[in-house]
Write a structure and sequence with these properties.
five-stranded antiparallel beta sheet; 26% helix; two-stranded antiparallel ribbon; 34% strand; single chain; 158 residues
Length: 158
């Protein structure tokens, strides 16, 4: 492709990095599997199917195990429960330090006087990216944390 160019070593190193990039969107660490502590575990996001008009995002991923000593990837099929953000899915609105925004209730309920502000997850994702509040990788990391929290039992099945 670039045979007609005199490419300096620094640019060639960049081209090599691009050519050798792993073909998945992100790989994020998970806590150790309770029955397989000899492996490091992660979620590898392979694809994202987003439908703007339906306000729907489906994260396609796999769990990955790597031997802690050798780093070798182990080919064991682990569960991958559905990871979807629907139109009805909500998120907590966060401030610049990533803390949830809590406001007083109009009328206290029992002893509860405050609650977190909730927004549509899909629209919030779009807004965060369009307004340069978060990178694509940070977005996946943030939503992965919530997904793992709610699906950890299913992720831990063998």
């Amino acid at each position: 492709m670039n045979e007609h160019l005199k490419i300096p070593a620094q640019i060639q190193a960049l081209i090599n990095d691009i050519e050798n990039v792993e073909l998945y969107l992100s790989e994020l660490p998970l806590p150790e599997h309770p029955k397989l502590p000899q492996f490091n575990r992660s979620i590898r996001v392979l694809d994202i199917d987003a439908k703007s008009r339906q306000e729907f995002v489906n994260f396609i991923y796999e769990q990955v195990l790597k031997d802690k000593e050798t780093g070798e990837e182990i080919n064991i099929s682990l569960p991958a429960p559905e990871w979807v953000v629907y139109k009805e899915t909500w998120s907590f609105l966060r401030d610049e330090q990533n803390n949830t925004i809590e406001l007083p209730l109009i009328e206290p309920i029992d002893k509860i006087t405050k609650d977190n502000v909730k927004v549509s997850s899909f629209k919030y994702m779009i807004w965060l990216m369009k307004n340069n509040k978060i990178s694509f990788l940070q977005l996946i990391q943030g939503y992965l944390a919530g997904f793992v929290e709610t699906k950890i039992e299913e992720l831990n099945k063998l």
